[in-house]
Specification:
The protein is mainly α. The protein contains five helices and no strands. The protein is about 50% helix and about 0% strand.
Length: about 120
């Protein structure tokens, strides 16, 4: 798992590092490549590294570069490093935040956020 997460972090960093030099909008060629993601449901498991590589190769170029400083569209982008890192940590925790007794940390975070708002 360590190798997969390191590879994913490297791919994410590469993506973020390229935002300043790429077009904000995806190219028509990048959008056309999204067709590679279709097809029948696989019969069994697929190597996670291969899935991540495919998502990066096909998906990354087809995104709108809303996390970059040159995006002036809807207020949806501009992920800060701390927010992205917290998102990764929350994903690793894999908590179901429906009930406080199942996920006390998530409940505490919610109470704090509600108080702040």
């Amino acid at each position: 798992m360590d190798d997969l997460l390191r590879m994913t972090a490297e791919r994410a960093l590469h993506y973020l590092d390229g935002l300043a030099t790429r077009s904000v909008a995806p190219t028509p060629a990048a959008l056309a490549q999204l067709a590679e993601l279709g097809g029948p449901l696989p019969d069994g498991p697929t190597d996670p590294a291969a899935v991540l590589a495919l998502l990066d190769r096909v998906g990354s170029p087809a995104t709108v570069a809303s996390a970059g400083g040159r995006y002036f569209g809807f207020v949806i982008g501009g992920s800060l490093p701390a927010a992205l890192a917290a998102n990764w940590l929350a994903g690793a925790w894999d908590q179901n935040a429906a009930f406080a007794h199942i996920t006390p940390a998530a409940a505490a975070f919610e109470r704090i956020s509600l108080r702040w708002i």
